[in-house]
Specification:
706 residues, 5-stranded antiparallel β-sheet, 22 helices, alpha+beta
Length: 706
């Protein structure tokens, strides 16, 4: 073996001279990795972005000043409402605001407002992200509505910025709210909020609201009254129970929410809470400038704009809007004259029944969906509720054409399997039990008449309840409801139950709702959402209106076949008075439960109109039967309503050539019409019932008359 070789001389010296080895070079990024920024770039960009954002915030904070709230209030303007031709209906929006110091507002009223709008007001900062998230969650889950904005933010909107929903306005709101919280105390902010908030009835501030709703000063408000005014802040126009009796359930629920919040915060004892009753406000006092039909038109237009989120009630209160309505002044005057001539002039001032008579009407251009005329009542300053838009009366038998449209559109069949057509024969006997229904139902016919075998067309001519109750089951009540909604009847109305009684018009649809549905028939089944507004501008800027693209509600064949049936009702049936217009028309009469309303719903190819004569006690507000009114034993749709309809329609269409219906109806059957039901049993007349007075039907039913 040999020894290991010794290192060559000088090698160690060479290593020392080279120094430490350099770290290996990082491999170059290739492929898609080259597109991914490094962590250094990411950190740098993030820091740069934060610097820019913070800089923008600080710059905006420095540039945005807190305006003078009194100067902002002084800029409030009137709103101008115009007929479609540009002539003035009314000017509204006089700024009714009366400021009071906070010490003149009862502590309980202050606490009620906090319970309604910002329970953490004294504990939380001017901007409360948690409240915003909580409000969003409640809205998403259907919980109780509470504002996501603090009272400070709402005060800023009320006093300085308005209610428009833009990012710029929201950013200003947040900045001014923060600045304001540094300049003013919580008490000053609450005082400003109470003096600037809108409570409805054109009342700005708690003092004006106390006068408008209870005829007293703010200092005299009880806890219950203060809680109701606090509840109004959420939706002033929608929760006024005197102006809109239908709003009572929602208003009471909101009032309870406020009181329960006061208990939860320790501001009200449970014992005092349980002892409270709802404090009904006094009737509103409309301004004299809204007398006659003007107030009804303005009220309806306001409701339309707010419901369709075109503007808020608060914005309308601040004014400055120029609103051109769809109302045709000539046709509006024609409607007023028709009601005056056919109803008002015939009322006996000494008759207890005649003092209950009310009239409502609406008229729509089927081609455009524009409401061209509306009759709300005798005078807005005397009868505040709009009879054309109220939802506490039922349409009665004027709903039957909607059922018929559903039958034709769904190509429904009878219990025996035969296709339903205008010539299908039904059993029209009085109180004939409906077959195929989940619940027993046997409605009465007008005057208890037995019609025996009768075609669908003849049944419509005579408004035979037993036929259409059976047809509702044949089609399926749920399908009938679906069709009515598609034709324009709102889906959230009281009484809109999908049972056999749906055929007889138990849903509490307004006159305007039914006019919309009949306009759909006149337009060959095409539904165009109605509008009361042609344009809205403010400060020269045009406000966007809702989209109203027409859609098919039912097939043209279904709609036109209904029209052919309703033409027979005018020529041969209960709507014969409509012949007075001397041009083609289709119409249906109806009478509500207990004869509390009588209607005529009809249309020509170019105008759809519904007229209702209603009964309501002017003192109590209770709905009353019309027996003996207008010198008649009974008021039915073929009487005064049909006379008003004919007089108005003839005047409204004067000067235009008569238009003919262009109908594409169902072809006539090629085989003999069939008897409906399951075999002969459905056709057999049931044993005659003993003679007796009219009795109520099952729950949800109604006894309508032609």
């Amino acid at each position: 073996m040999t020894d290991a070789a010794a290192p060559s001389p000088g090698r160690g010296l060479r290593l020392l001279r080279r120094g430490p080895r350099k770290p290996p070079r990082r491999p170059r990024r290739t492929g898609w990795r080259r597109l991914v920024p490094t962590w250094r770039w990411t950190l740098g960009l993030t820091l740069g972005f934060l610097v820019l954002v913070l800089g923008a915030i600080f710059t905006a904070y420095a540039l945005v000043d807190v305006p003078d709230s009194k100067a902002a209030a002084a800029t409030a303007q009137s709103n101008v409402y115009l007929y479609s031709d540009g002539s003035v209906i009314a000017r509204t929006g006089e700024f009714n605001r009366q400021d009071v110091p906070l010490d003149q507002v009862p502590k309980s009223t202050q606490e009620a407002v906090l319970a309604a709008e910002d329970r953490g007001f004294y504990r939380e900062p001017a901007i409360d992200p948690k409240a915003m998230l909580r409000a969003a969650w409640n809205m998403a889950t259907g919980g109780e509505t509470q504002s996501g904005s603090t009272i400070t933010q709402q005060y800023v909107k009320n006093a300085y910025l308005g209610q428009e929903q833009t990012l710029t306005r929201k950013a200003k709101e947040l900045i001014i709210a923060v600045k304001l919280s540094r300049e003013e105390s919580k008490q000053q902010i609450l005082q400003g909020y109470l003096n600037s908030s809108y409570f409805g009835r054109n009342a700005y501030g708690i003092q004006a609201a106390a006068q408008a709703y209870y005829g007293k000063n703010a200092s005299q408000l009880t806890t219950a009254e203060g809680a109701y005014l606090a509840a109004l802040l959420n939706a002033p126009s929608a929760l006024d129970v005197s102006a809109d009796p239908e709003a009572r359930p929602q208003a009471v629920a909101r009032w309870n929410y406020v009181l329960d919040g006061m208990v939860k915060e320790g501001w009200l004892s449970q014992q005092d809470r349980q002892a409270m009753t709802f404090p009904d406000p006094m009737q509103p006092k409309p301004p004299a400038g809204l007398s006659g039909q003007r107030g009804y038109l303005v009220q309806a237009v306001k409701a339309y704009l707010v419901a369709h989120k075109v503007v808020t009630a608060q914005d309308l209160g601040h004014g400055g809007y120029r609103i051109t309505t769809s109302i045709d002044k000539k046709r509006e005057d024609d409607f007023v004259r028709a009601v005056q001539d056919k109803v008002v002039s015939k009322l006996d001032p000494n008759s207890k029944v005649d003092r209950n008579v009310r009239v409502g009407g609406a008229s729509i251009d089927p081609a455009t969906g524009r409401v061209v005329a509306m009759y709300g009542g005798i005078d807005y300053t005397k009868q505040y509720v709009n009879n054309a838009t109220r939802h506490d009366f039922t349409p009665g038998s004027t709903f039957k054409p909607l059922l018929l449209a559903s039958a034709f559109d769904h190509r429904a069949r009878t219990q025996g399997g035969q296709l339903i057509t205008p010539e299908t024969i039904y059993n029209g006997d009085n109180k004939r039990p409906v077959q195929g229904s989940d619940v027993p139902y046997a409605p009465e016919n007008e005057d208890h008449a037995d019609y025996g075998p009768i075609t669908v067309t003849k049944a419509m001519d005579n408004s035979v309840n037993s036929v259409f109750a059976q047809m509702a089951v044949d089609v399926g009540p749920a399908k009938v409801k679906q069709t009515a909604i598609a034709m324009g009847v709102p889906d959230d109305l009281p009484g809109f139950d999908a049972g056999p009684s749906i055929a007889l018009g138990v849903v509490q649809a307004s006159v305007l709702d039914m006019t919309q549905a009949y306009a759909t028939l006149a337009a060959h089944g095409r539904y165009t959402p109605y509008t009361l507004v042609d344009s809205v501008t403010r400060g020269g800027q045009t406000v966007t209106l809702p989209d109203r693209t027409p859609v098919k509600a039912v097939s043209r064949q279904a709609a036109d076949t209904v029209t052919s049936v309703l033409r027979s009702t005018v020529e041969n049936g209960t709507a014969a008075a409509a012949q007075a217009i001397d041009r083609p028309a289709a119409a249906k009469t109806g009478t509500a439960e207990e004869d509390r309303a009588a209607l005529l719903a009809g249309y020509t190819p170019d105008l759809a109109t519904v007229v209702s004569v209603m009964g309501q006690d002017p003192d109590s507000g209770q709905l009353r039967p019309l027996y003996g009114a207008l010198g008649q034993d009974r008021v039915n749709g073929g009487g005064a309503p049909a006379q008003v309809w004919a007089a108005y329609t003839k005047a409204a269409l004067a000067g235009t050539p008569p238009a003919s219906f262009d109908l594409k109806a169902m072809p006539a059957p090629t085989q003999p019409p069939s008897r409906t039901g399951t075999g002969r049993s459905s056709y057999t007349t049931p044993p005659p019932a003993p003679k007796r007075s009219r009795l109520p039907g099952p729950p949800g039913s109604t006894h309508t008359t032609p």
